[in-house]
User: Which sequence fits this backbone?
């Protein structure tokens, strides 16, 4: 037999294996293994069980065939545990230890106060944490302060074994691993988990090498049945600095948006943080829909109460938060704000021009005022250039017709109404 004529030599075995796979597979998965021959068995030891399972499923048949040509059986095992990720490559020990260790403090899902609009994303996050999903990655997006990071932390706390990294940390640690020649250990560290979470994926924009490594990580984890959770400021197809392939991979699991806190959620957040109920009721509508700012307001009120030894009344809160609370909106202030958001001049809105874009903006402002205030049609007309009752009524009807066929316009108007209330 041919196997009897080939000497069982580790170097020869490595050379034969390297010749049967591409360079990326060899350097990423097979070269880092420890090769030993013991009792006619080729023993290949990897850093963790994830690597053993992945290599066995993808390259197991090939390894068995190569070992057979040398008259050997093959066995994949896990090396002894170490405190940091280490990996052998060409007899050089690679070590990787994250600069910023993951925060291990428990964060329960109850800490996320969900509105009706966020019920779906919360349910999806709980399913991922319970490892009961068939989709990966879970891509969570929304504006700053909506609770994306909080949801990611909840998933990390509830998962069996999670790796949690920010986008900026992934970029800097990948660059450091390349510089220190510990890239194999870095790869193994990211894959040695049940759930991998990357917060603020937009930090990878424009970084080609990092992006390639990250996309490969997603595909490897998904192939091994592991969970991937990503957060971002916008949906995958709206990410700038990401090519079409990257956007496609990011959107290949489940994409779910998080809506910014509404008035009821802001009120609950303030009360839960220790703010008196009457104060929370009064100021909830005057704080921006931003969870970070809400926490800042609560911290300021609590700190004042502790330092001054007194309860914070509404009058005190008004003075204390004068730099934060939004002023009560007057109709003129609303029209000026809406004009700016629609990209037209306030004077033009109140003027006589009949330019198509200007007329549309004027009509949008009218319907927003109708739904966001208690102004009569005649009063609305006064604030948009002294238009009469009939003109305002006609304008509102025109926009209502457009809303039935233009979903984008309808959503824009709904957002403007919510901001003015």
Assistant:
């Amino acid at each position: 037999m041919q196997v009897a004529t080939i000497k069982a030599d580790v170097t020869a075995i490595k050379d034969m294996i390297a010749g049967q796979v591409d360079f990326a597979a060899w350097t990423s998965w097979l070269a880092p293994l420890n090769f030993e021959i013991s009792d006619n068995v080729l023993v290949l030891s990897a850093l963790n069980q994830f690597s053993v399972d992945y290599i066995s499923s993808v390259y197991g048949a090939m390894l068995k065939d190569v070992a057979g040509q040398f008259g050997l059986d093959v066995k994949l095992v896990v090396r002894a545990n170490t405190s940091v990720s280490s990996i052998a490559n060409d007899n050089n020990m690679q070590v990787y230890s994250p600069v910023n260790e993951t925060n291990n403090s428990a964060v329960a899902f109850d800490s996320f106060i969900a509105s009706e609009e966020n019920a779906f994303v919360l349910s999806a996050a709980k399913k991922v944490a319970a490892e009961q999903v068939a989709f990966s990655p879970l891509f969570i997006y929304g504006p700053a302060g909506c609770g994306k990071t909080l949801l990611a932390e909840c998933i990390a706390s509830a998962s069996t074994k999670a790796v949690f990294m920010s986008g900026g940390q992934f970029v800097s640690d990948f660059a450091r691993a390349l510089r220190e020649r510990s890239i194999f250990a870095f790869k193994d560290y990211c894959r040695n988990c049940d759930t991998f979470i990357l917060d603020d994926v937009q930090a990878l924009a424009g970084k080609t090498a990092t992006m390639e490594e990250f996309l490969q990580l997603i595909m490897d984890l998904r192939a091994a049945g592991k969970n991937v959770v990503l957060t971002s400021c916008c949906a995958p197809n709206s990410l700038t600095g990401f090519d079409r392939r990257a956007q496609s991979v990011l959107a290949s699991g489940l994409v779910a948006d998080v809506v910014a806190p509404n008035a009821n959620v802001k009120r609950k957040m303030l009360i839960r943080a220790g703010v008196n109920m009457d104060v929370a009721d009064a100021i909830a509508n005057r704080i921006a829909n931003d969870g970070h700012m809400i926490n800042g307001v609560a911290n300021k009120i609590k700190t004042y109460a502790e330092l001054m030894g007194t309860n914070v009344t509404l009058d005190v809160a008004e003075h204390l938060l004068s730099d934060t609370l939004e002023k009560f909106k007057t109709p003129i202030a609303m029209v000026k704000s809406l004009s700016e958001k629609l990209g037209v001049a306030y004077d033009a809105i109140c003027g006589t021009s009949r330019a198509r874009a200007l007329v549309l903006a004027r009509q949008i402002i009218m319907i927003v005022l109708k739904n966001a205030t208690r102004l009569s049609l005649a009063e609305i007309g006064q604030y948009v250039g002294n238009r009469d009752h009939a003109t305002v009524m006609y304008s509102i009807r025109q926009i209502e017709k457009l809303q039935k066929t233009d979903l984008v316009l309808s959503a824009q108007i709904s957002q403007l109404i919510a901001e003015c209330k």
In short: The longest strand covers residues 41-46. The longest helix spans residues 49-69. The CA atoms of residues 330 and 420 lie 10 Å apart. The chain has 19 helices and ten strands.
